Amino acid sequence: MSVVVKIKEAAVRSIETLYGVSLNAEQIQVNATKPEFEGDYTVVLFAFVKQLKKSPDALGAELGAHIVEQNPTLFSSFNVIKGFLNLAVANQFWLDFVDAQKNNAEYGMQPKNGKKVMVEYSSPNTNKPLHLGHLRNNFLGWSIAEILKANGYDVAKTCIVNDRGIHICKSMIAWQLFGNGATPASTGMKGDHFVGDYYVKFNDAYKAEIGALVAGGLDAAAAEKEAPIMKATQQMLLDWEASKPAVMELWRNMNGWVYEGFETTYKRIGSDFDKTYYESNTYLLGKDLVESGLEKNVFIQKDDTSVWIDLTADGLDEKLVRRKDGTSVYMTQDIGLAVHKYNEFKAEQSIYVVGDEQNYHFKVLKLICQKLGIPAADGIYHLSYGMVELPTGKMKSREGTVVDADDLVDAMVNIAQQKTEELGKVKDFTEDELVALYDTIGLGALKFFLLRVDPKKKMIFNPEESIDFHGFTGPFVQYTHARIKSILRKQEDAVLENQISEALLPLELELTKHLELFPSILADAANEHDPSKVAIYVFELAKTFNGFYTQHSIANAETEEKKSLRIHLSKLTAQVLQRGMKVLGIRVPERM
């Protein structure tokens, strides 16, 4: 239990004892005490002044005296300034904390809570390789899954692959027209890049045909419909739905090339799944739920036989769930898949990591599932995130202006090599160690930069800025971890004191307070589905350690007790940095 929680619970007990008023801990606001005031944590009293019929200063004096009296091992003193109750935590509490956690390899990790959560992320199309946007998606999904695991949840990571539809047929038609039998093996290209190139070729050919038709007298809208390559693509989709052997063989071959490429990328970026679903296997799911919804009067059938749901009473609009020709829409498929996944995993919460352009879709999905009485419908959660742009602007797949994930990772590793060589501190590394180090720094910088921002916000990714050993970056945290490990290697023979009683100096206390926050930071990140909280925390912890070490020597500490304390603080800091970065999917080197 964190010290903030202890303070809230102590305040609740004292308020009930003194005034006979029952509150819950969430109603108590506790902040870090401002540097200009004496104390460690501040209880904000103004919310209770009217209810308890006390002036802020009188309430603070009575409450502070009672809290300190009843919790002598936790608090040493208090003061009240303009209605704010400032509490000083006893020095022994912090020393006991360091002593309890100094050898706890699981510090911050919570025991199993018996709750199951599913996290769905990545969701690529098989007509193009993974790109920068997919990287933010993968890093968010993987990280929130690991943060939930750290908080005791049983987590299933899933992926839905969009492997059917008109966009897939575009690449297939282009390969038939322009491929001349080429394959990834014959060209030496990675499979997803190979297929993605044909998606771009389709768009180039389509534009040229539209231009020719417009020049021949058709208006633009008609030309888009009449372009031969588009008509051929639409026919291919019909042939796929009819399971024509030649089309199915081509579809399986081209998707197979893409899957091999995806797997290579996933392995490199450290993304994995417990179960992968394919739209080609799930797109018919949900049809029986439409009939069930009609029987329950959740859905309505219109005169043209199309089926809808009216959500106007919920502040939305009408939504189509089955076309008049009897075919389903994406919403129907997602409802069916939600039921299918629940039956398979029995997860109480299902988190969908999808860009914010789908906010409306997921509002509707959750509402429909709730109205249909689907199990765990209340647990549907859309982890919405903003798009990633480059300094040059937005990316477009069909125009070939996206940044492929593989190319970006390669570029990041190259930048990491350049920046590391400029520092000139790795001359004793072997070639293999250097390769591993550059990969660790480059990929770590990429992940940290994409995760350090609140998921809801759009962001601009700047590769050069992300690898700055002195900035708000992954390499800064990695370098601090390696620095601590180097310090500790020099103290391996130190004889450590078992009993430490000396008062903590201000920077020692500041570092200890930061370390004590780690479990609550992980809990907040899980509750708010926000890995940026962990990224910000480990950065601040690294900064705090560097400030502490600049002022306080370990090797030449004033006393043996101080030396022992600082070694324990250093070990715990390295451990928390490693664990915090691990849930972000980032490795930290032992030296760099």
Describe the 3D structure.
Helix content is 54%, strand content 11%. With 592 residues, it is of the alpha/beta class. The protein contains 23 helices and 14 strands. It starts with a helix and ends in a 9-residue tail after the last helix. A hairpin with an 8-residue loop joins strand 1 (29-32) and strand 2 (41-44). Strands 7-6-5-11-12 form a five-stranded parallel β-sheet, with helices on both faces. A four-stranded antiparallel β-sheet has the order 1-2-4-3. A three-stranded antiparallel β-sheet has the order 8-9-10. Among the domains are: 3-89, Gyrase A, domain 2 (2-Layer Sandwich), CATH 3.30.1360.70; 165-272, no CATH class; 287-327, no CATH class; 406-583, Isoleucyl-tRNA Synthetase, Domain 1 (Orthogonal Bundle), CATH 1.10.730. The model is unreliable at 395-400 (pLDDT under 50).
Summary tags:
Gyrase A, domain 2; 592 residues; globular; four-stranded antiparallel β-sheet; five-stranded parallel β-sheet; single chain; 14 strands; alpha/beta; 23 helices
Q: Number of helical segments? A: 23
Q: List segments where confidence is low: pLDDT < 50 over at least 5 consecutive residues.
A: 395-400
Q: CATH homologous superfamily of the domain at 406-583, by name?
A: Isoleucyl-tRNA Synthetase, Domain 1
Widest sheet, order of strands: 7-6-5-11-12
Sheet of most strands: 5 strands, parallel
Binned strand content = 5-15%
Backbone structural class: alpha/beta
